[in-house]
Amino acid sequence: MKKKIISMVSIAALSLTISTSAFASSGTVERSVNFRSAPSTGSSVYQLISKGSTVDILEKVNSYWLKVSYNGKVGYVSTDYISGSTAPSTGSGTVTKSANFRSAPSTDSSVYRLLKTGTTFQVLSKVNNYWLHISVGGQQGYISTDYVSYNGGSTKPPTTQPPTVPSSAKADRIIAHAKSLIGKVRYEFGANRAPSVLDCSSFTKYVFGLEGVSMKWGTRFQKDDGAAVSKSNLQKGDLVFFWTSKAGTINHVGIYMGNGQFIHNSPSFNGVGISSLESGYWANHYISARRVL
């Protein structure tokens, strides 16, 4: 009888594991991350998951947290440390603006061809907030989410979205959010404890996130977000990038405000401040800009 009970428990546990993983997608830990009991930095930590480990993504809770399964245990990790599909996702999509069809989810990858506006495709998976894994005419590849509309959960045509808020109005609000944090945010390198202790890129991530613009933490990710824009064509809300230690290597980011000024979270202020892009230190250390609105 005892053996029967043990066998039944084992079968139940196995069934639970199968049912959990069957509806999950995999993700890879890019940097060691705390595996937590709840989607909050105030929750208890089960353990530290090492870089390179694989987790099963069960659900995207919000822009900041994933519900995952790791070694048979369910918990939560920050989205900033995970790469991979954020949810099991198949469906259809349409190219809204001609875009490169690539061999990998990176702007450095080779281009198969240009997909013209109106081209339809099958969504195989959502790699992250920036890339989709798709199939076009039997060929698989990747396309930026910036140039498509898609439905990740069914084969129905993409639903019509309500008109978006004009970028200039959204930029004004983002800048207002940033200015409201002057004197309230403390700078700390490598910190992402919003809204009080941040570094330069967790500051931009947090401020843009308040207006529904999702970005990863880290200048190495943000420097490829959106579209490149020349310094002479900067608009309010553009991300501006700089070097501070090694010439030509991006390691600082701010938000362009217009009139040759930008706002950023910097150790020189020990918090949020406004600097000139036209003269002085930052003008001499400017590298590039990206438009994400």
Automatic annotation (TrEMBL):
Residues 19-86, 90-152 form the SH3b domain. InterPro entries: NLP_P60_dom (IPR000064), Papain-like_cys_pep_sf (IPR038765), Peptidase_C40 (IPR051202), SH3-like_bac-type (IPR003646), SH3-like_dom_sf (IPR036028). GO terms for molecular function: cysteine-type peptidase activity. Residues 168-293 form the NlpC/P60 domain. The keyword Protease applies. GO terms for biological process: proteolysis. Keywords: Hydrolase, Protease, Signal, Thiol protease. SMART domains: SH3b. Residues 1-24 form the signal peptide. SUPFAM superfamilies: Cysteine proteinases (SSF54001), SH3-domain (SSF50044). Belongs to the peptidase C40 family. This is SH3 domain-containing protein. It comes from Paenibacillus oceani.
